[in-house]
Design goal:
The protein is an alpha/beta fold. The longest helix is centred in the middle third of the chain and has 18 residues. It contains four helices and 14 strands. The strands form three sheets. Strands 1, 4, 7, 8, 11 and 14 form a six-stranded mixed sheet that branches. 36% of the residues lie in helices and 24% in strands.
């Protein structure tokens, strides 16, 4: 993916965290917000520049262990990914995430027999939720805290 496209993804993620876009807010978000820091490196993992991609994947691996987040760098995630409490999030590499997704702590989006969930746009997934199997969560949905979604 071109750096220009990645920049747009990072801007949309920053907007979800701060409500504005500026270099100052990006730097503050990077150093003070673990969720934004993680999504920043997650986005850069798809860079078409080898050195940037290598550094991003090392940082992604490091932050995954540090924050207990398992979001594969190969995942298809739309614009505006928001990690609410930046810890204990597990997503299958087969899942598809739309635009403006909120993921809370202790969220699992898993796969059954290679089929994982498809999450639409503008979806909020509350804390301690499990979305397992080939289910589809529609646009503008809310998955309440503690839910287990299998159908």
């Amino acid at each position: 993916m071109k750096i220009k496209e990645i920049k747009e993804y990072i801007k949309s993620d920053l907007y979800r965290y701060t409500g504005e876009i500026s270099l100052k807010l990006m730097l503050l978000g990077y150093f003070l917000n673990r969720g934004f820091k993680y999504t920043f490196w997650l986005r850069l993992c798809k860079s078409d520049i080898g050195v940037v991609r290598f550094i991003a994947r090392v940082m992604h691996w490091r932050l995954s262990r540090k924050y207990l987040i398992q979001i594969p760098h190969t995942i298809e995630a739309g614009y505006g990914l928001y990690l609410g409490h930046h810890m204990c999030v597990v997503i299958s590499p087969h899942a598809a995430l739309g635009n403006n997704i909120n993921l809370s702590q202790f969220t699992t989006i898993g796969a059954v027999e290679g089929r994982a969930a498809e999450i639409g746009d503008n979806v909020y997934i509350g804390p301690n939720c499990s979305v397992v199997g080939g289910v589809t969560i529609g646009n503008c949905s809310i998955v309440g805290a503690g839910s287990v979604v299998v159908k």
